[in-house]
What does this fold into?
Amino acid sequence: QVPLVESGGGLVQPGGSLRLSCAASGISTKAMAWYRQAPGKQREWVAGIFNVDITDYTDSVKGRFAISRDNAKDTVYLQMNSLKSEDTAVYYCNVGFRSPTWSWGQGTQVSVSS
It folds into this structure.
């Protein structure tokens, strides 16, 4: 396995949007998922993608987040809209639809605050 590299986080006001990216050589053929870990909480699964059109989301982000991928770029995205303060966390990607199978990357911090 190669390192998973997450990017795109930042500080955004409630109601705002961010797009996260996850890049690593060879992930275009694999099911992928996004996870997040808020301060003082366990890491949780957020969204998964299999092939390009099979996706699922945790209930708290359904209708607001969208996972997608560009296989030509070995990149998976997480489009996050209508962000809430409770979305504040470090976001990670990993291989596998619902269970991580690779070592964790460094993650990317998302902070939602006015």
